[in-house]
DNA sequence: CGGAATCCCGAGGGATACTG
DNA sequence: CAGTATCCCTCGGGATTCCG
């Protein structure tokens, strides 16, 4: 019964923690902040295809989980900056590795997909 | 304009590759296969809370992407085994690190959530 | 045992409009 | 600029049933 610490177990908090990472945009935001502080609009530009709704929501989630720090400057027009917390930077190391893996192995994945789809599974017109 | 290789760019294949990792169950399946070969039912048991539909679908996706190998023994009752391919094992290293991060830092995340929710955001009845 | 097929609901998430 | 609020629709994914 000593299976407490296990990401595969729903009863283990690490499982829900892992879910937060698995979100579609979470990793990309952490990845985008790898070089330092960015403003909201800069994040919006850096992460292609993200809507403001999702960007805001993702940032709130990451802030809530202690991974991202938000600093608001009370000026007009508004100025808001985001950066990783120490906890966020510890995760960032793994996220960057994940990004590197994706960049390094994307061609293998693509060719695997091509093979798989070419084995008689394509839909002829 | 030399920003080709970038997981943040939708036009870069690595971006879609990263998406496949971000799926809710993909990482857990790769993680579950870290120790070697498992049968369908063993995976179903190991990964708490996954439905057979999602397990099958996730395995198909990972097989299609060249991360998981499927071996079917033509016996009755059926016997099917799954294991990581070399490509899958290269990803597995990063996934295991992600799992370790989740296990090591889950308490920090939990306490951050408690702090955030305690700052006047809870909904009193 | 290892799936495939079907049904169906709720959340995820985009588009748009508005605001301090 | 940095959000919030609302609408609305897709599809992720659970439950169930059937099959070789």
UniProtKB/TrEMBL annotation, chains A, B:
UniProt keyword annotations, A-Z: DNA-binding, Transcription, Transcription regulation
Pfam families xrefs: HxlR
Residue stretches making up the HTH hxlR-type domain: 12-110
InterPro entries given in the database record: HTH_HxlR, WH-like_DNA-bd_sf, WH_DNA-bd_sf
Domain of life: Bacteria
Matches recorded under PANTHER family: HTH-TYPE TRANSCRIPTIONAL REGULATOR YODB, TRANSCRIPTIONAL REGULATOR, MARR FAMILY
Name recorded for this polypeptide: Winged helix-turn-helix transcriptional regulator
Species assigned in the record: Deinococcus sonorensis
């Amino acid at each position: 019964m000593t299976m407490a610490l296990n990401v595969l177990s729903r009863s283990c908090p690490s499982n829900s923690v892992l879910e937060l990472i698995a979100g579609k945009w979470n990793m990309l935001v952490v990845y985008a902040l790898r070089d330092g502080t960015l403003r909201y609009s800069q994040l919006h530009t850096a992460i292609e295809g993200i809507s403001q709704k999702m960007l805001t929501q993702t940032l709130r989630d990451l802030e809530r989980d202690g991974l991202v720090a938000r600093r608001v400057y009370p000026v007009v027009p508004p100025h808001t900056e985001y950066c990783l917390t120490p906890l966020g930077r510890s995760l960032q190391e793994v996220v960057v590795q994940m990004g590197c893996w994706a960049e390094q192995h994307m061609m293998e994945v693509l060719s695997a997909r091509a093979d798989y789809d070419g084995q008689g599974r394509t839909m002829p017109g």
